[in-house]
Design a protein that fits this description.
mainly alpha; Arc Repressor Mutant, subunit A; Tetracycline Repressor, domain 2; 10 helices; disordered N terminus
């Protein structure tokens, strides 16, 4: 029993540190924050950073690793990445893409990513320090490549993947602009439906452009 309690305490400390580090890195940047400040904010022992991540660099990457871990676990509820897109029919491929993107909207606008984490990602995504590899996003790119009969490495597929995901991300990335126009404090269920519909309309336009009829 004591071992279980200690294990639970360590996990709680880990989550507090991740939360505090995300907030402080988003506010001050990597160089502007020390591990003592993070641990003080998290009310955690400074030794925990070495225990879990080895140091500040590891903790920084650990924020992203935690995000990808949670995203991957969420994706397992509606996606089997072991299924190769090329083995599916065109209709199955497109319907699967819609399913993934609909769930991505639910994830992003359902509180999965905190405001601090979003600010952290926006602030740091241009820096070489971070490494963000998402199995779900990689699968989406493979799926889009299969739908349009192209290679995953094709620049056109890379940009199409970016543009499709930006259809989902844009309102969230620009909340001060989008929510001000909507005259709301947060995104609603109706907003999520509109975003999903817009994404589908965009994909259908791409399919029509390529002469893909389903």
């Amino acid at each position: 029993m004591p071992t279980k309690v200690r294990s639970e305490d360590k996990e709680k400390s880990k989550q507090r540190i991740l939360k505090s580090a995300t907030k402080l890195f988003a506010k001050k940047g990597f160089d502007g924050v020390g591990i003592r400040e993070i641990c003080k904010d998290a009310d955690a022992n400074i030794c925990m950073i070495s225990y879990f991540w080895g140091g500040k660099e590891g903790l920084y990457q650990g924020i992203l690793d935690d995000l990808i871990k949670r995203q991957t676990e969420y994706a397992k509820t509606f996606l089997n990445i072991e299924i190769e897109p090329d083995t599916l029919t065109k209709t199955e491929q497109i319907n699967l893409l819609y399913t993934i993107l609909d769930n991505a909207v639910e994830m992003l606008y359902g509180g999965f990513i905190s405001a601090d984490l979003l600010n952290f990602l926006l602030q740091e995504q241009q820096r070489q320090r971070i490494e963000l590899t998402s199995p779900m996003l990689e699968y989406v790119r493979k799926l889009i490549a299969a739908i349009f009969y192209k290679k995953v490495s094709d620049k056109d597929i890379i940009f199409r993947t970016i543009f499709i995901m930006s259809q989902i991300n844009s309102p969230l990335i620009l909340p001060a602009f989008s929510l001000k126009l909507l005259k709301q404090e947060k995104f609603s269920e109706e907003d999520k439906t509109i975003i999903k519909d817009n994404v589908r309309t965009y994909i259908q336009a791409l399919l029509k452009q390529e002469g893909i009829d389903v």
